[in-house]
Amino acid sequence: MADATWLAQRLYRDEFLTVIEQSGLRSRRRPGSFAPAGVLMHHTGYRSSNADPFPGLSTVINGRPDLSGPLCHLLVGYNGKVRVIAAGRANHANTARASGPMPAGDGNTMYIGIEVDYAPQLGQAPSSAQVNAAMQAAAAVVTRLGRGKRYVRAHAETSTTGKWDPGGAFPAPGAFRDKVGWWINNYWRP
Ligand SMILES: [Zn+2]
After folding, report:
1. Which of 104, 124, 175, 184 is 20 to 30 Å from the Cα of 150, by its Cα?
2. 68 C-alpha to ligand 1 centroid (Å)
3. What biological-process GO terms show up in the record (predicted)?
4. Total domains present in the chain
């Protein structure tokens, strides 16, 4: 067990991010191993807006009838703010295929999960603030793990069950990694 109790503090170091700590995050986890080496990007499938920037909040904390929460570590709202949901193992990745430098295996052991709260299956695009916050959060976390942009993967790249997230107008995985790489090179590199 190696809970990522550093998540909120790491994100606070990014002056461009607005961070909200969800009550109870340090003890929120699934049972089982957690040794994250990479970051996995998702969309929630909930239609968000400026008036309702985090429609997926309750679900990512509490889970669904078929899947116990927490369902991610970070939730990125339509307003570009980032909620820290859980420090320990979360149900977001299932069994992972090998992807880039990341091996195949238990995705919930290997990845920190970032859910972007929008609904591409309903035709919704993420906001630009949301995409920017997602890339900064991914850069902050993957560098804290001691790794570079190639360790940021999309769920569509690791899923063994046909997941396609983050979809719609979200940057394609390679383009997203390049944006994360910019933040690593220009902001996080010591
Ligand atoms: Zn996903």
Report:
1. 124
2. 14
3. peptidoglycan catabolic process
4. 1
Domain assignment present for 175 = yes
Q: Check whether 12 has a pLDDT greater than 90.
A: yes
Q: Is position 35 within any domain?
A: yes
Cα 31 to ligand 1 centroid, rounded to whole Å: 20
Ligand 1 centroid from CA 190, angstroms: 31
Q: Which domain does 90 fall in, by range?
A: 7-188
Give the tens place of pLDDT for each residue, 146-167: 999 999 999 999 999 999 999 9
Query: Tens of pLDDT along 28-84?
Result: 999 999 999 999 999 999 999 999 999 999 999 999 999 999 999 999 999 999 999
Q: Quick one: tokens of 157?
A: 């790249």
Residues 34 and 92: beta-carbon distance below 8 Å: no
Q: Which CATH number covers residue 157?
A: 3.40.80.10
